[in-house]
Amino acid sequence: MRRLLLLTLAAAPLAACANQEIPLSIKDLEEARALAAEERWNEVDALLRDFQVRDFDLATQRDFNLLAARAADEEGDWSRAVRYYEAFVLQAGPADEALVVERRLLELGRQLLAGELRVFWIFPDRSRGILVLENLGFAGRFAETRALSLAELGAYRWENGRWGEAADYYAALLAPELAGQGWDDLAAFRLAMATFRTLEDDRTYYSGILETLDQLQAYLDAYPTGLHRIEAEQAHAQTRELLARHHLQVGNYYERIGNDDGARYHWRMAAGEAPDGSTVIATLVRGTDSAREASERLASGMASS
């Protein structure tokens, strides 16, 4: 009896293996591939809808994803096409095939972002476009498609006044591995201008003014003959004016509350006199309208004291 029980237990794993489904192989895609060769995509699409990628062995899953994506794409089902294309590019394989698919994903992402592809032919799905382009931009295999995706996203956010979000994409475009793709000048310029665009004249954070000046100066130093140099210089001059005006207004406030020492200190900062011994701000504010006004306030105040 004991010997019979042991034989029964030993046979149990074998029975389980015998009942386990064997995954499909490349041979099971032969019919779909033959139809695809004849460009009978509607039949390919109908045939493959009965299967999931997990039904196939690992060696065949990449072929299934590409075939299913092509069929869905040809039939205008962009949502399924995107899903299978994205699964395809995550799998290792020949670079030439992967590059073609990444370029197609880039185009689909652009069309979604522009509202050219719609859900039920009615509703735009720009958020899906953003996701497609972000996946390519941050996890793509090729510098070409990564850079183009990030540039597309940066431009979209920029045109919609989302400066901070645009800056994230432009900062990513300046990654060393994307150098030489033709976006360095524009990305550095808009990264600097993003901080400039967020400045509000009457409610500007002091640190924001200094950060903007640093960013703009970094662009001017890095691209002495940059395509956007004139606009960057104009923004730099306006930000220098904001810096001087900040100290001028703080000085005016101190004057109103009777703090003459505080008023004089900030007027001197605005005028470029460097009362604290630091010449950085003094150099930046000199020559601005607010610097001249601060000098006049100082002369007036000293004369009356």
**Secondary structure tally: strands:** 2
* Overall body shape: elongated
| Strand arrangement across the biggest beta sheet | 1-2
Arithmetic mean pLDDT: 88
Output the structural class: mainly alpha
Write down the Rg. 32 Å
Separate helix tally: 15
Strand content is under 5%
Distance between the termini: 116 Å
Largest sheet: 2 strands, antiparallel
> Which percent bin holds the helix content?
over 70%
Order of helices and strands: HHHHHHEEHHHHHHHHH
Low-confidence stretches: 1-20
Summarize the structure.
With 305 residues, the chain is mostly helical.
Structural summary, described in words:
This protein has 305 residues and is mainly alpha-helical. The protein contains 15 helices and 2 strands. It has a two-stranded antiparallel ribbon with strand order 1-2. Helix 10 packs antiparallel against helix 11, helix 12 packs parallel to helix 15 and helix 13 packs antiparallel against helix 15. The protein starts with a helix and ends with a helix.
